[in-house]
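Support reply, case 0932

Customer input (verbatim):
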Amino acid sequence: MRELVVENQEILMIPQNFKFANRGVVTEVRASDFTLVLDYEPEGILENTYCEFYTQTNHGKLYFDSYAKNIDGKTLIISSPAKHKFLQRRQYTRIKYISDIVICLDGNSYNISTLDISAGGMKFKTAENINIEGSYAVSLSLTDEKIIDCIFQPIRIEKRSEGGYTVSGQFVYNSSADRMFVTQYCAKRSVEIKNK
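Our regenerated output:
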């Protein structure tokens, strides 16, 4: 683990209650633990209670479960996890996401069929010609209780041989909490799919 978690590395920490997610920087790494200094006070984060951790490394997106052995203000001593998992090499975990939804621009609605999503963006197919310069309002229904409203900006549009278009692009979020929720959702779904 020492070669995976290094000093000055940013780590996302997500406790059981997602709304208390926090971000921090590693300041020291030891054989059995590491020191994490959080950006915000650790509300909802308890000693000896497991949380999820996500960070980007040279080997890809790293995910592991661990807990704080000691909490002193924003400074936490995190136990080195027994095991870890690389989700994939891209910055955000991409998962298959099949859904018929609507995106909107300037009062006009466009029907799309999503193919995959990540916290960074999505890919979809549509019969309609989408303006690549547009910023489209979109609502992603991820769970029964959670809908993420954000902006979709097209980056690449390809004509499909069978008709219509395949569009890839990025999300612009209203809050970092929304981005974190999509990151966690995609990571969990990725693990669930691999374990089937």
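We compared this against your earlier run and they match. Two observations from our side: Residues 176-194 form the longest helix (19 residues). The CA atoms of residues 13 and 53 lie 5 Å apart. Please reopen the case if you see a mismatch on your end.
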